[in-house]
Automatic annotation (TrEMBL):
Domain of life: Eukaryota
Membrane topology value: Peripheral membrane protein
Domain annotation PH: ranges: 98-193
Keyword terms, alphabetized: ANK repeat, Endosome, GTPase activation, Metal-binding, Repeat, Zinc, Zinc-finger
Organism of provenance: Thalassarche chlororhynchos
Gene3D superfamilies on file: Arfaptin homology (AH) domain/BAR domain, Pleckstrin-homology domain (PH domain)/Phosphotyrosine-binding domain (PTB)
Activity regulation text: GAP activity stimulated by phosphatidylinositol 4,5-bisphosphate (PIP2) and phosphatidic acid.
Cell location: Endosome membrane
Entry protein name: Arf-GAP with coiled-coil, ANK repeat and PH domain-containing protein
Keyword ATP-binding listed: no
Main location: membrane
UniProt xrefs under SUPFAM superfamilies: PH domain-like
Length: 206
């Protein structure tokens, strides 16, 4: 009986091994079939991936080009004070049209955000005014320059700034260059002096 049992175990072990091998064959066969069905999709995905790599390289090159242009503009902006012609910074207190000086300046807003906006400023009729666009209605910043003082501002985050101070408010402005800042300061001072000279004595008394 012991011999019979030992012989029987040999057959059972062999049968179990054969069943295991069949199970392994079936598993890998099914895996191969499944991946074989996915082969066209994987090839399509690989083609799309190649195109994505090309598009990404093109986009990167375009962004680098834009970044280089922005750097050039920034450099040009910071160097533009060396390229202004002196004729562009002249002012005339005796101009026939009454406009002593005009040009673009950045104005700091009086709100909590302290944003800077570029406006077309002019000095005329003893007033400091600006327009958002050339054809817009004039906005008066300072009604009477005789009551104002003007001074350059260095302790600020921007360059070429100056401040026009009146009894009721102050206006922080930024020019595009040091030459323009000095010209605007001199224009305001000259306008103040000219307005005092032209005013009759009765106006001072009043």
């Amino acid at each position: 009986q012991i011999n019979v049992l030992q012989a029987k175990k040999k057959f059972e072990i062999l049968d179990a091994m054969l069943s295991f091998m069949h199970a392994q064959y079936t598993f890998f066969q099914q895996g191969y079939s499944l991946l074989h069905e996915l082969d066209p999709y994987m090839k399509k995905l690989a083609t799309e991936l190649d195109q994505l790599v090309i598009d990404s390289a093109v986009e990167k090159r375009e962004m680098e080009h834009k970044h280089a242009l922005i750097q050039q503009r920034v450099i040009s902006f910071y160097l533009q004070d060396f390229s202004y012609d002196d004729s562009k910074v002249e002012f005339n207190v005796d101009a026939p049209n009454g406009v002593v000086m005009e040009g673009y300046l950045f104005k700091r807003a009086s709100n909590a955000f302290k944003t800077w906006n570029r406006r077309w400023f002019s000095i005329q009729n003893s007033q400091l005014v600006y327009q958002k666009k050339l054809k817009d209605v004039l906005t008066v910043v300072v009604e009477d320059l005789r009551l104002c003082t003007v001074k350059p501002c260095e302790d600020i985050e921007r360059r070429f700034c100056f401040e026009v101070v009146s009894p009721t408010k102050s206006c922080m402005l930024q020019a595009d260059s040091e030459k323009l800042r000095q010209a605007w300061i001199q224009a305001v001072q000259a306008s103040i002096a000219s307005a005092y000279r032209e005013s009759p004595d009765s106006y001072y008394i009043e």
